């Protein structure tokens, strides 16, 4: 087990190093980053956008963004995969909101709420500890609050969409999520 | 329906905007306003980064999906179209000997900065099992190395983040615990990751506020057991 964890450390630092090389204009390093992370990030975009061709456009945009702004990546502060996921989510959500209107009148499949049990790729493993802490802290929240936060993150839902889906007034949903986030922060900082 | 203990302190309100932005729950207009604020207010941008890290592992629950194979080609073409001089066509700044030599001048200032850092280090929190990383920045502000402590705290892997060349000198890695003298961890190879074993007295005891520094030394390393040459990169350990 220790061996695996150390590999994860090495994989994380190699990804971080590749990102730093990308900042220096190293295209081969970008290719490496793409190879290691594109399936994860495509999954993130697809989950939010629910449209393959939109998700492909956004994914392309994500790596072009990475190419241009890797200088802002700070390995001391950010986990490389988390940093990349944040860019992918942001771009996807921006795209979604820009083309807003009448999306998603379809019910969301319930499988979406089940944590993924896919065998851990190295990039998942590397965050095992962080994941465990977050899971513990989410577990301390009221279940509905935690569920709302999870759905918002994974599916890119607005307060309004969340309220509609969970069938509560908008104000209630806002209060659930806000208080959930504050508790989460307090728990993670303990 | 809204619970009685609903009150949210005003100082939390702005931090919540960062959290709400990261989570993505704001409606399009609110989101645009938040984005503009984040661009303008550095502390808010910092909050955003913190929330991205806090919530990031929720993405572990997303099933990876292979993008179509041709997508990489599209990205590459796009880059080629936008970047006129291919970065590999000429030696980068880091391969330029002259640029390298200028380090000797600025590194004294950098070493001084490291000492200041040490002087400000106070209480070191106890270690937990969260992995620790450091980016060792160069005077240019560009990262020079990335280091990760193994999860058992007994070794450290250091990866060069830039192509470093120097005269006939060796690069030696030093670990400087808060308020302590530098401990040599050994020499670093150019261009490849190296795993170094930590001295037994430090193994498993590293905390954030430990500084890592790379100095230039005579071939084979410092003759005195303490850094003798210029510090070319340094950084502090951080917990992820």
What report would you give on this structure?
The complex is a heterodimer of chains A (190) and B (240). Chain A contains 9 helices and no strands. With 190 residues, chain A is mostly helical. Chain A has 2 domains: 1-99 and 119-126, Rna Polymerase Sigma Factor, Chain: A (Orthogonal Bundle), CATH 1.10.1740.10; 128-190, Winged helix-like DNA-binding domain superfamily/Winged helix DNA-binding domain (Arc Repressor Mutant, subunit A). In chain A, helix 1 packs across helix 2 (27-49). Chain A is globular. Residues 1-6 and 104-124 of chain A have low confidence and may be disordered. Chain B has helices at residues 10-23, 28-40, 42-55, 71-82, 97-101, 103-120, and strands at residues 132-137, 143-149, 155-160, 170-176, 183-188, 194-197, 211-217, 231-236, 238-239. In chain B, the strands form 2 sheets. In chain B, strands 6-3-2-1-9 form a 5-stranded antiparallel β-sheet, with no helix packed on it. Chain B is globular and about 65 Å long. The relative contact order of chain B is 0.12. Mean pLDDT of chain B is 74; it is low at 84-128. At the A-B interface, helix 1, helix 2, helix 3, helix 4 and helix 6 of A face helix 1, helix 3, helix 4, strand 1 and strand 2 of B.
